[in-house]
């Protein structure tokens, strides 16, 4: 009985994750279109590089989440830890670029990125058999 219930929950989770993956693909295409529009506006001098970089990093966040979902299905329904660290680093970099907080806040964000990078190195060294 518990095995059937567990399989049912896994199936529900996989269907939900598939739906999230489809939504992320749509958002990725939308972000790519926006990236093209902003790039064209930059060429014409109607936009700033700040907007271009913000949209580019948002694009990479969508891309990383889609890659995480693909890895989940390829790794027999397990999420690889290193992908979460990549997403965390990218999200913090995006936050630093967009927020422009005080110098102390940026220092804290930089320390956070350093901790995540160190964690990534440790994961790759000691657990790095996700392939």
- Mean pLDDT over all positions: 89
Helix content: over 70%
Question: What is the CA-atom radius of gyration, in angstroms?
Answer: 18 Å
Strand content: under 5%
Structural class: mainly alpha
Uncertain runs with pLDDT below 50, 5 residues or more? none
User: What is the end-to-end distance?
Assistant: 33 Å
Count of alpha and pi helical runs: 4
Please give the largest β-sheet.
Answer: none
The oligomeric state is single chain
User: So what's the overall shape?
Assistant: flat
Order of helices and strands: HHHH
Number of strands: 0
Written account of the structure:
- The chain has 131 residues and is mainly alpha-helical.
- Helix 1 runs antiparallel to helix 2, helix 2 packs antiparallel against helix 3 and helix 3 runs antiparallel to helix 4.
- The chain is flat, with a radius of gyration of 18 Å.
């Amino acid at each position: 009985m518990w095995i059937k219930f567990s399989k049912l929950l896994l199936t529900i989770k996989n269907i939900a994750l598939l739906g999230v993956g489809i939504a992320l693909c749509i958002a990725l295409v939308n972000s790519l279109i926006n990236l093209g529009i902003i790039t064209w506006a930059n060429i014409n001098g109607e936009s700033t590089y700040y907007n271009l970089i913000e949209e580019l990093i948002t694009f990479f966040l969508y891309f990383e989440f889609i890659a995480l979902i693909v890895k989940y299905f390829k790794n027999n329904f397990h999420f690889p830890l290193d992908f979460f660290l990549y997403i965390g680093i990218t999200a913090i970099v995006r936050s630093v670029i967009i927020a422009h907080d005080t110098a102390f806040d940026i220092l804290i964000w930089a320390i956070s990125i350093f901790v995540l990078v160190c964690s990534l190195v440790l994961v790759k060294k000691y657990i790095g058999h996700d392939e």
